[in-house]
Amino acid sequence: MAFFGGCSVHRQLQNNELNNFCINCKVAICKHCISPSSSSNVGISHHHGHRLLKIYRHVYTDVVPLDDIRAHLDISKIQTYKCNKKWIISFNPLPHNGSGSQCSNVRGTCYSCKRKLHDPHLYCFCCIACKVFP
């Protein structure tokens, strides 16, 4: 799923980046998709009242605060990170930086993508995608 691109429904409006996720519809949406007053469908918002997650960027990847996603998904065994004093979880594996962050050795790595885990005794997956779509 791609976030932070421009919304195709609201391309004529400013600040239309896809930085929300509608859990009900399983799509990336912009702030105008949520607000009935700025919707291009004459005051009708297809996502108003739906369960939504605010998506953030951290180290060039899409993340969601731990407290926000906990009610919607079993996040056990997914590695967490701290960013601006908040605990977050990454949607996708963090970018490979060439410093051995990916290993062929199964011990201490993500069960899905083989990326090194900070604490392999606590975590089995490095991100949501690796747990949900192994």
UniProtKB/TrEMBL annotation:
Highest taxon, organism lineage: Eukaryota
Record keyword Repressor present: no
Domain B box-type, chain residue ranges per copy: 7-55
InterPro entries named among the record's database cross-references: PLATZ, Znf_B-box
Keywords assigned by UniProt, alphabetized: Metal-binding, Zinc, Zinc-finger
GO terms assigned for molecular function: zinc ion binding
Entry annotated with the keyword Phosphoprotein: no
Identification of the protein by name: B box-type domain-containing protein
Protein species of origin: Cuscuta epithymum
